[in-house]
User: Fold this.
Amino acid sequence: MSWAENIENKLGNRGLTTQKVSLPLDCSFLSPYLLPLGKRIELVKVSAISVNDIVETVNFSIENHIPIIPLGGGKNNIGGLTPTKNSIVIDLKGIRYIHKEGRSLRIGSGTPFYENRSFLFWPKVYPSTYSEGATIGGNLEGGSTGIGSFKYGRTWNQFTAIKVVTPTGKIETYSDDRIMSFAHALGTTGVVIEVKLEEREENDYPRIFTFKDAYEASDFASKINDAYHVSILPPSRIFETNTWTVLVVFEDEISEGIDGRRLWEKRRLFHGGIVEELNTFYQGFYVNKDMLGEALKIASENCEVEAELINDRTARVNVIGNRENISKVSTSFENIGVRVFNLHSIKINSRLE
Ligand SMILES: Cc1cc2nc3c(=O)[nH]c(=O)nc-3n(C[C@H](O)[C@H](O)[C@H](O)COP(=O)(O)OP(=O)(O)OC[C@H]3O[C@@H](n4cnc5c(N)ncnc54)[C@H](O)[C@@H]3O)c2cc1C
Assistant:
């Protein structure tokens, strides 16, 4: 009997629904680690549909010394936790519910943002993978900035409480700084069962402003104070103009600029989302707004690029292209003091700053 069959039997005896699976390889082309590892590892997936299923699985993994890997929508850039041994994958998509009390929502961690062409709830910040099955729990554990970060900052800022199963199998609720132990922790600090957040009122008025170069576009974008979302896109991203485009999503109707609804409808391509269409690499950087024009100019001369502004006076600049060109941009960025968002750092929470 194989390792996986043995574990499946044992988990089945504890009333859990299991399945032998191969490593989820979504987006693995972005990771230097996943592909070679995937061939050697056996994984058993538990489909959790209750808190009890999660606790049972965690207890089983403690008793049998087997690593456990939480799985939401599987849309993380590097596949999230990378198994290096035979492991149990706990699929949380069955932990799915939305309880509303006014604007306050309690949401099961496996609940997707979006289904059948509409949002299931209105998050303040959401990832560009929102329409591909990304879940709210997976976004706390694997996200950083997203659509809405101009107004609301980092992904984890929107959570007012979380309920988790700790690595020792206890159920805990946190509504203080301990939420941060689960922010971009990739499932290493426990399994999130439920999150609590305040729903946003959806009032999106996207307007487009065009500029002759990266400096003018950055200067304009850096002076915006009151908006929900701000993106800067180079001429190569907008076929109908030959200009740098700033997309500003206001929360009140305004007459300046031109209608940006068509571009806003394609926001799944922002924040690095375009790499899936191009099947290429990207590297994220955090750039202070005073260096943004220079950074965008350097990047656009070598690669595809985009910037999304964040509320802390930085911008997330995604540089998209082949490894060689990205590395050229990265070296030039070092000279102007730009910080790398290192997707492959093995330090837990190293991406929180
Ligand atoms: C092209 C592309 C663009 C992206 N754009 C963005 C973006 O704009 N903003 C952004 O924030 N992210 C972005 N991401 C990253 C990712 O898609 C999102 O963070 C997404 O929300 C992850 O959710 P998921 O349900 O797919 O998580 P998964 O991929 O299933 O999981 C992510 C990590 O969290 C762990 N995990 C999942 N669920 C739980 C849970 N309930 N408890 C504990 N650990 C858990 C997993 O083990 C894994 O390590 C992007 C990724 C790609 C490939």
User: Anything to note?
Assistant: The chain is about 25% helix and 25% strand.
